[in-house]
Amino acid sequence: MEPRETASNYDKIAYHWAGSSFNRVNGIAQHERALKFITAPGTALDIGCGSSGRLIDLLIAHQFAVEGLDLSPEMLALAKKRHPSVIFHHADICTWEAPRRYDFISAWDSIWHVPLAGQRAVLEKICGALQTDGVLIFTSGGLDGPGEVTNPCLGQPLYTAAPGIPALLRWVEEFGCVCRHLEYDQFPPEMHLYLIVQKLPDGPARA
């Protein structure tokens, strides 16, 4: 499934994440853990920000200057209503070029919608958009090898893919970062995985 098709399907259900029935603590504890690796607030980017605004609220509370990115127009319309002063980018992360480097990037339950063949390039791009010592938190499927599936969500088909944990760890190192934390945070029954990675200075790894 191509990203624009995924975005179109999200348009039809964008209300869910902005509504009172959505669990707004989803992912918050994990982000609080990631933020402990930041020495001082700076700039932050929420990739696949969606319509809930909960992660943007958290980052603002931690005194970050936050930007959001999403390919779903309906998601962004709701996000802008909640945070009219935040800069939002209507873009596909597969083709978007970051205008600056960020101290903190979240890609929570978002880049796993990128077609499997494009996930390496997207992760490389995101790691490249980190400042030195910047932190990225992102989710993936907790698989040992590559896999992809399309499942219904609120009546809409949504595609997700995962390259597998060995590939993710290898790529993180190749892209100049180190994994600070890896956890199955919904196991069992879900194979939901999140990683916290940090950008290393250029040159040899630190002792």
Describe what you observe in this structure.
This protein is an alpha/beta fold and 207 residues long. It has a single domain, classed as Vaccinia Virus protein VP39 (Rossmann fold, 3-Layer(aba) Sandwich), CATH 3.40.50. Helices cover 29% and strands 30% of the residues. It has seven helices and nine strands. It has a seven-stranded mixed β-sheet, with helices on both faces. β1, α4 (54-61) and β2 (65-70) form a beta-alpha-beta unit. The longest helix is centred in the middle third of the chain and has 10 residues, at 73-82. The protein is globular and about 45 Å long.
Provide a quick synopsis of the model.
A 7-stranded mixed β-sheet has the order 3-2-1-4-5-9-8, with helices on both faces. The protein has a two-stranded antiparallel sheet with strand order 6-7. It is 29% helix and 30% strand. It has a single domain, classed as 3-Layer(aba) Sandwich (Rossmann fold).
Helices and strands, with pairings:
Blueprint: H1 3-11, H2 15-18, H3 28-35, E1 43-47, H4 54-61, E2 65-70, H5 73-82, E3 87-90, E4 102-107, H6 119-128, E5 130-141, E6 147-153, E7 156-162, H7 165-174, E8 177-184, E9 192-199
Parallel strand pairs: 1-2, 1-4, 2-3, 4-5
Antiparallel strand pairs: 5-9, 6-7, 8-9
